[in-house]
Specification:
The structure holds 2 protein chains of 2 kinds. In chain A, about 30% of the residues lie in helices and about 25% in strands. Chain B has 3 domains: about 110 residues, Acyl-CoA dehydrogenase/oxidase, N-terminal domain (Butyryl-Coa Dehydrogenase, subunit A, domain 1), CATH 1.10.540.10; about 110 residues, Butyryl-CoA Dehydrogenase, subunit A, domain 2, CATH 2.40.110; about 150 residues, Butyryl-CoA Dehydrogenase, subunit A, domain 3, CATH 1.20.140.10. Chain B is about 50% helix and about 15% strand. The chains are: A alpha/beta, B alpha+beta.
């Protein structure tokens, strides 16, 4: 049966972000006590997959890379209607940047969710906000990718028409499967989880897989496999400065221009 | 002893909260103004599985149970206590049919009630509610029918229910006391009509009206339980479904008060600082939190006992008494945190206060609850 893969990321529940804070001494983001939740745009991705399941009878496989205590959030994907979840979880994967994450997820898809028709991601995660992982997964899987999708259409489940909003209009792509699709929140309104879904989710498979089983190259995963180095995290200090320039209008304009150049604004 | 909320119930809480925010919150203002229940919500409650929470899968429900029901009603009532009471009285219309009904009655009524129709259970009359012997509505057997005459009042879901469980006087017992029987009544039965709709101070949008029986012909197969069991059925339904339902609504109101009061106190600046910095305000927040938690856990214990099949009538009454009283106090304290803003309709704390006020006498006044509790104390301590 054709398989559609949805990549999801458990993040600190955005409803409790007022409890997040950055330790000014260590630069570490403190998230203690904030429960995990599915990244909101990943629910849009899952909704696209579930609608394809309803139309074409495909199976929906959810993949994720996260600590093992996030299974509660992943169970929500099963309650929405996904058929199974594979979670890559291992201490060796900790500290991964987008490239190491994409490598791990691509390997998970190859090992557990192939062959696939389509891979669908949320376009961006609310916590990391890099938007890099979807394209990087496509790279590792060797398939084309379309990101920033606002509309998805297909007649036969083979040829897809994807719309992407750009600044002054729309880009429309036509693409045959397999490919990777990254969607924005405009693509749909994700369904609510109902009681029957919660009960059904209890018996659906949620498998946690370690690095060894995935046969990962340990030089490419976790902190070790991440070329990105975080030099520091800080809350930007925003200050208003006021300076009054006096003189003839031409002189003041010239001086203002110089100051803006000096400040690197222009 | 394990107080951990099961993972599936935490997911239920989150899902129902999202449902309430998406589907109910936009309707609240209109419900407050019009007093009308938004009928378009009924199929959505069915699709969410909320209508079938206490109905077993054998009859089209999901049977998730009473603790699940408590959590679901709590989350809905944080957004709208009116929808909360509509749902809770609907369950009062389902449970006695499954518990006391014949196989034929269960198959006929429960699948529809679990998915798309609203039910109700009505006992109170102008001459008696908590005074059950004051009920004057009569039912007499005539051939293949029971002929019912009388009037019920304050019947929740009066104008939207498709099935009513009602109780009427059918004779006398061996000791000469009035005997009552329960019946399942459909709105289109001959001689049945809906009367006036009460214009309430709270629960606006939930119907409370009159049911009028004027030589109402109820087929004899719609007798629920055995003849003479009406009081047992009524009391069991009120104790085990109605009271925890009111407790759950009230817990929702407690937490709605807590959230609104806390949010307001962090935003409202007086003397150059948020008023949450003032101990006078902090003490109010601490009180609301304490009373909300106490109400919640009494209610969860009672509903957990119900799910385990343990005797829990006293615990249900205790939860209902404490939760409804606490909801009123929490709402009042939330109003105090808001100061003058609590008098303005766009701030919801005034609604919580009005809803909590109506919750107290629903399912029996606090004084009636205290009689039940005192009886338990004198017998067991």
């Amino acid at each position: 049966m054709p398989n559609v893969v949805v990549c999801v990321k458990p993040i600190p529940d955005p409803r409790h972000w007022d409890r997040l804070f950055l330790d000014p001494e260590t630069g570490v983001l403190k998230r203690a006590g904030i429960p995990p939740a599915l990244n909101p745009l990943d629910k849009n991705a899952l909704e696209v997959a579930l609608q394809l399941k309803e139309r074409f009878g495909w199976e929906v496989t959810v993949v994720s890379m996260a600590p093992p205590d996030t299974t509660k959030a992943l169970r929500e994907a099963l309650a929405m209607g996904a058929d199974r979840v594979y979670l890559a979880s291992d201490k060796a994967l900790a500290g991964a940047d987008t490239l190491a994450t994409a490598y791990t997820l691509a390997q998970l898809i190859r090992k557990k969710a192939s062959p696939f028709h389509l891979v669908i991601c949320g376009n961006i995660s609310l916590d990391g906000s890099t938007s890099q992982v979807p394209a990087q997964i496509a790279h590792y899987l060797g398939i084309p990718h379309i990101t920033h999708a606002t509309h998805v259409e297909t007649e036969d489940g083979q040829l897809f028409t994807i719309t992407m909003n750009i600044k002054k209009g729309e880009l429309v792509f036509r693409c045959t499967t397999p490919f990777l699709l990254a969607v924005t929140k405009d693509v749909n309104l994700p369904r609510l989880v109902n009681v029957m879904g919660i009960i059904a989710a209890e018996t659906k498979p949620l498998e946690v897989i370690d690095a060894r089983e995935l046969e990962l190259d340990l030089d490419k995963v976790g902190l070790k496999g991440s070329p990105t180095r975080v030099r520091g995290l800080f809350i930007p200090e925003i200050k208003r400065r006021r300076e009054i320039l006096t003189g003839e209008p031409e002189e003041v304009a010239e001086e203002l221009l110089n100051k803006l150049h000096e400040a690197g604004v222009l | 002893m394990d107080f951990t909320i099961p993972e599936k119930l935490e997911l239920l809480r989150k899902s129902v909260a999202e449902f309430a925010e998406r589907e109910i919150a936009p309707l609240v203002e209109d419900m407050e103004k019009s007093g009308e229940f938004p009928k378009q919500l009924i199929p959505k409650l069915g699709e969410m599985g909320l209508l079938g929470l206490v109905t077993s899968p054998d009859y089209g429900g999901n049977g998730m149970g009473f603790l699940a029901r408590a959590i679901a009603i709590e989350e809905i009532s944080k957004v709208s206590a009116a929808v909360g009471i509509t749902l809770q009285v609907h369950h009062m219309g389902c449970w006695p049919i499954e518990t006391f009904g014949t196989e034929e009655q269960k198959k006929r009524y429960l699948p529809k009630l679990a998915r798309e129709a609203i039910g109700a259970c009505s006992i109170t009359e102008p001459s008696g509610g908590s005074d059950v012997f004051g009920m004057k509505t009569t039912a007499k057997q005539e051939g293949d029918y029971w002929v019912i005459n009388g009037r019920k009042c304050f019947a929740t879901n009066s104008h939207i229910a498709e099935t009513f469980v009602i109780v009427a006087r059918t004779g006398e017992d061996a000791k000469g006391r009035p005997a009552f029987s329960a019946f399942i009544v459909e709105p289109d039965f001959e001689g049945f009509s809906i009367g006036r709709e009460e214009n309430k101070v709270g629960f606006r949008g939930a119907y409370s009206g009159e049911l009028i029986f004027n030589d109402c012909k109820v087929p004899k197969e719609n007798l629920l339980g055995k003849e003479g069991e009406g009081l047992k059925i009524a009391l069991a339904t009120v104790n085990r479904v109605g009271r925890p339902g009111m407790a759950s609504i009230s817990v929702g109101l407690c937490y709605a008060s807590l959230e609104e009061a806390t949010k307001f106190s962090k935003e409202r600046v007086l003397y150059g600082k948020p008023i949450s910095n003032l101990q006078a305000i902090q003490f109010l927040l601490a009180d609301i939190f304490s009373y909300a938690e106490a109400a919640r856990w009494l209610n969860y214990r009672a509903n957990w006992m119900m799910d385990q099949g343990l005797p829990c009538d006293t615990e249900m009454t205790l939860a209902k008494y404490v939760a409804t009283e606490n909801a009123f106090l929490c709402a009042r304290w939330a109003c105090e945190v808001h100061g003058g803003y609590s008098c303005i309709l766009e701030y919801p704390v005034q609604r919580y206060l009005r809803d909590a006020w109506v919750a107290i006498p629903s399912g029996g006044t606090s004084q009636v609850a205290k009689i039940v509790l005192a009886r338990h104390v004198l017998k067991n301590f």
